[in-house]
Write a structure and sequence with these properties.
Number of strands: 11
Shape: globular
Helix content: under 10%
Mean pLDDT: 94
Distance between the termini: 40 Å
Largest sheet: 7 strands, mixed
Low-confidence stretches: none
Radius of gyration: 13 Å
Order of helices and strands: EEEEEEEEEHEE
Length: about 130
């Protein structure tokens, strides 16, 4: 019933910026929203989450201070603003909507979002 479509990925030099967009269809009013990423050969990791209805935001230590998650209810879109990008940020990025009593838990344990709704992913590549 819920559909998520990511866009905005691409290639950027270290120190550059990208803004990912996640257009949300369906009722996610009670869902945590988040961004996850996975690089080849690595485990999927939680990047950031935001509480239902644009609640509290939380970030993985690796991106704190550089990435910002936000919601625009008028356009039903979740954004991930990524600044000061590093090569280690290279990954496929996924938008996810999931039910949880503690949205931030998915940052520490990515499997918390396994049974949520996932987008198709958008590739981010950071290199010189």
């Amino acid at each position: 019933q819920v559909q998520l479509v990511e866009s905005g990925g691409g290639s950027v030099q270290p120190g550059g910026s990208l803004r990912l967009s996640c257009v949300v269809s369906g009722n996610t009013a009670s869902y945590c929203m988040g961004w996850f990423r996975q690089a080849p050969g690595k485990r999927r990791e939680g990047v950031t989450t935001i509480g239902p209805g644009g609640g509290s935001t939380h970030y993985a230590d690796s991106v704190k201070g550089r990435f910002t998650i936000s919601q625009d209810n008028a356009t039903n879109t979740v954004y991930l603003q990524m600044n000061s990008l590093k090569p280690e940020d290279t990954a496929m990025y996924y938008c996810v909507a999931f039910l949880s009593t503690d949205c931030v838990a998915a940052i520490r344990v990515a499997a918390e979002a396994d049974f949520g709704y996932w987008g198709q992913g958008t590739q981010v590549t950071v290199s010189s």
